[in-house]
Design a protein that fits this description.
By secondary structure, the chain is α/β, with parallel strands linked by helices. Helix content is 41%, strand content 16%. Bound molecules: 2-phosphoglycolic acid.
Length: 248
């Protein structure tokens, strides 16, 4: 299994010029690392607005390990759903990965576990690789409820997914403790490992870690057994992001 490094740009950067600059610097760096990329898969998830730019540049570069990812999808294929993007549209576009159920969407857009379940099914049906984000809040961890929260999220998020004929093996889970996201307060790798062991006991999918990953701590999560990383803030800092790609 290839090591998966996913860059989640979130709602950044703010102009096409900046997005082009960032992408060019990252792609130049990846090109230099070409030989070092064999065992890795790099997925860049920019805002929808910049997906076309990414696609054009990837096609020119011909780096087989570099993939296109989206940050969200809707569950219907087409129709009157203003503002939404369908899994079929993403597939036809050439996108392979999609982040589903990120805690920021759960929180600010009130995405429920049931909605996430529908999105996952729709993504799998189009043979996309959904990255399902799960994780507990700080107060839930303090109350010793981490595993219960994860169990509840996964129970609903994955409801009747195993009955699908489509490629269930495409699913990826990202453990992202909410309190570690964008806070500079990463989860201790040993604590994250406890969650990893719990997830691996129940599922055969690749498991990523996300939450304040940086060039200093990235390796530690892979050492304890995670199959890759979901990187937010640092994926916008081309030098640091590239140094993670290089070092892991
Ligand atoms: P962060 O974000 O690396 O900035 O903590 C991770 C994520 O939200 O996926």
């Amino acid at each position: 299994m290839k090591l998966l490094i996913v860059a989640n740009w979130k709602m950044n950067p703010q102009s096409l010029t900046e997005a082009t600059f960032l992408l060019d610097s990252i792609l130049r760096g990846l090109k230099r690392e070409r030989k070092n990329l064999k065992e890795k898969e790099i997925v860049i998830c920019p805002p929808f607005l910049y997906l076309f730019l990414l696609k054009e540049k990837i096609e020119k570069l011909k780096l087989p390990n570099l993939k296109i990812g989206a940050q969200n999808i809707f569950w219907e294929e087409k129709g009157a759903f203003t503002g939404e993007i369908s899994p079929l549209m993403l597939k036809n576009f050439g996108c392979q990965y999609v982040i589903v159920g990120h805690s920021e969407r759960r929180e600010y857009l009130r995405e429920s576990d049931e909605m996430i379940n529908k999105k996952l099914k729709a993504a799998l049906q189009e043979k996309l690789r959904p990255i399902l984000c799960v994780g507990e809040r700080a107060k839930e961890r303090k109350a010793g409820k981490t595993f219960k929260i994860l169990e509840n999220q996964l129970k609903t998020n994955l409801k009747s997914i195993f009955n699908l004929k489509s490629e269930i093996s495409n699913l990826i889970i990202a453990y992202e403790p909410v309190w570690a996201i964008g806070t500079g307060n990463p989860c201790d790798p040993e604590k994250a490992k406890e969650v990893l062991v719990f997830l691996k006991k129940n599922f055969k999918f690749p498991i990523l870690y996300g939450g304040s990953v940086n060039s200093e701590n990235a390796k530690n999560y892979l050492k304890v057994g995670f199959n890759g990383l979901l990187i937010g803030g640092v994926s916008l800092k081309e030098k640091e992001f590239l140094s993670i790609v290089k070092s892991v």
